[in-house]
Every structure is written in structure tokens, then in C-alpha cells.
Amino acid sequence: MAQAQAPACRVAFDMGSSGVRAAATGPGTTAAMPRRDIDLLLPLWQGQSLEEPLPQVITHLQELPRQARWPADCARLGAGFSAWRLAWQLDGPRLLDQLRLLHAQAQVPVLVMPAQIEGRYAYETAQRVLGPRLSTSHVLDIGGGSLQLAGAASSFSAELGQKAWHRRLCLALRSTPSCALEALDAAELQRARNLLDELLADLPAQLGTGVRLTALSRPVTRGVAPALARLRGAAPSQAVPSLSLGDLRWAIGQLAPLPLQEVAARVGAAPTFAAYLLSDLLLTEGLLRATGGSALQLAELDLNILPALLADERAFAWGGRYPCYLERLASKGPAAYFSDPSTCRAP
């Protein structure tokens, strides 16, 4: 009996903490990468699980391929990252029910991706886009909920993305999950640094020595770097290609004592963006301190991990054995990805 051939085209969904983006490969597809924004972290932080935004997620998964006019019979797969890992940590059985509902209604199997795989995708993307311009051992990707330091042979991940780290700092310094981090004194700065050192304590053992970083994401390339340029009296467009530990410490010292409105005026940013600047500076400084580095390289690029996801044979194999994946997710958590799909019963 002839075996059914696998679909010749693939559609993948990058399901981050702030939106869903799609891409496709194969016959009949286009280079379009449609996106829809949605905040998945806030309901999780408010203890609501993903119940409330789930219908919107389902709609996005249905609409994005239609918008791009991709063939309806392409193999489809979603990769859920930091927000989905957090949902698993908060209530795994509840998330399993939500994934089953999502699959039934949107016809998209969604994997809860381990942080190591997210980091691998980031490094592969940087290698593909930057080529020989990538001269460091690791890349730094700061998202909304998590960050990854990813290299060819080692990686580190923590739930310390821009929004998540800012929230932790607010809880530690202001006893509230949402605050304006402004007018910090020396004791509060030291508390912030001590907290970050604790949260990054495992980083040196996981990455080893000789780590050098290239920052790829906007909190650094379009936030910290232009702000430093303005503080030095240069135009934001003249931001340097690297940030030194000394520069970061100097900028923190300049901005920490100021009210938020004055911080915004000093760096030429709207208060809504300036609100994250001090926590971004502290995070960047702390990462350099944890890796023993003296400077951080910068590379401006759209960190699009979808080509890496589309080429991930293991991920798409799990998409074809989704009931088995959900069984293993129930017992192994996100590490279910690393088990072997071929050991499942044939679908």
C-alpha cells in the first residue's frame, strides 16, 4: 500500500509574548510574513491563564495564512515561546486543555518550545543574516518575557525579558508589579544589581569562559545605544557599534536619580519608552558583569526565527504526531520536544 506523501509546503507560526507572526515555504507560498499583535503576558501575570486571549489567538492562526494566500493543505505548526512556557509553569493541565482546543478549532498543532531551542533559532538566524560580521561567541536576544544568550555549543535562557525584568524590579523596589522606575538612590541601585546577580547566578556555569556577546534586539540597539549617544551629546544615529561596561555604569549613574520626565527629556524619548530605559540599562550591565565581558557588540537586524522553525524537522515531526506530543508534554513539560517522535505510534 502506498504511503501518503507529506505536504510539499509548510506554514509556521512564531507565537511570542506580544504577537503571532507567520511564514511559509514550498510550492504555492509567498515570502509574506503577516503578523498580529496580542499581549499574552499580562493575562498570565494577572492569574487568568490564556483563557481570555485564546479565541483571539485562534482567529490569528486562521486568518494569517488566508491573508498571505497560502495553500490550505500546507503542513502547519505553531511554536509557543516564553508566554506559553509561563502558562505551563502556572497550570500545565489547563494549558493542555487549551492546546487541544486550539488544535481542534484552528487546525494548528502548537508546541511549547524549550528555551534552548528558542536560543538555537536566534543564533542560527544571526549566522544566516550576519555571516562573517558575527564575530562573537554568543548572541543576546531580549524579548518581552525572556532572554536568550545563544551560541553554537552553549546557551542560557532566563525569564528576564524587557517586560518581565521591569516587573521584577518594580516588585522588588516598589512592591507593585507596575511602576515608574525613577529617582533611585544608591541603596536601591545596589538592591537591583544584587537581584540580577542572583537571577543570573547559573549563567557562567552554563556558558563557560570566553563568552563575547552581540546584542540583536531592540531594547539594546534602539533603546540603550541611542540613549547613550544622546547622553554623550551625539545624535542617536551616531550610536556606537559597541557598548562598554564603563559606559553602561556611567549612564545608569546619570539617569537613576532623575524623575521619569527628565529621563525622557535627556535621551529624547517618549515617557512610555523611557520607562523601560533604566531597567534595560541595568539588565545589559548585569549580563556583561555575569559573562565577565568588558563590552557588548551591536547588530541591527530583525530577529526572525521563522526560517529556522520552518527547517526544524523534529518540530514538524511532532506536529504530525500531536496527540503523542501532548501526552509527553503532560509528563515531561517543554522538554517533550527533545524526545523522539518516531517512538510514538503511527498517527
Give an overview of the whole structure.
The protein is an alpha/beta fold and 347 residues long. The chain is built from 16 helices and 11 strands. The strands form 2 sheets. A 6-stranded mixed β-sheet has the order 8-7-6-9-11-10. Strands 3-2-1-4-5 form a 5-stranded mixed β-sheet. Helix 7 (186-199) packs across helix 13 (277-291) and helix 9 packs across helix 13. The longest helix is centred in the middle third of the chain and has 16 residues, at 115-130. 43% of the residues are buried. The model has no long low-confidence stretch (mean pLDDT 92).
For this entry, give a set of tags.
five-stranded mixed sheet, six-stranded mixed sheet, 347 residues, alpha/beta
The helix fraction, in percent, is 40-55%
Q: What would the principal axes of the Cα set say about the shape?
A: globular
SSE pattern, N- to C-terminal: EEEHHEHHEHEEEHHHEHEHHHHEHHH
The count of β-strands is 11
Biggest sheet strand line-up: 8-7-6-9-11-10
What is the overall number of helices? Answer: 16
| Spatial gap, N to C terminus | 16 Å
| Cα-atom radius of gyration | 21 Å
Average pLDDT confidence is 92
How would you classify the helix and strand content by structural class? alpha/beta
Largest sheet: 6 strands, mixed
Quote the beta fraction: 5-15%
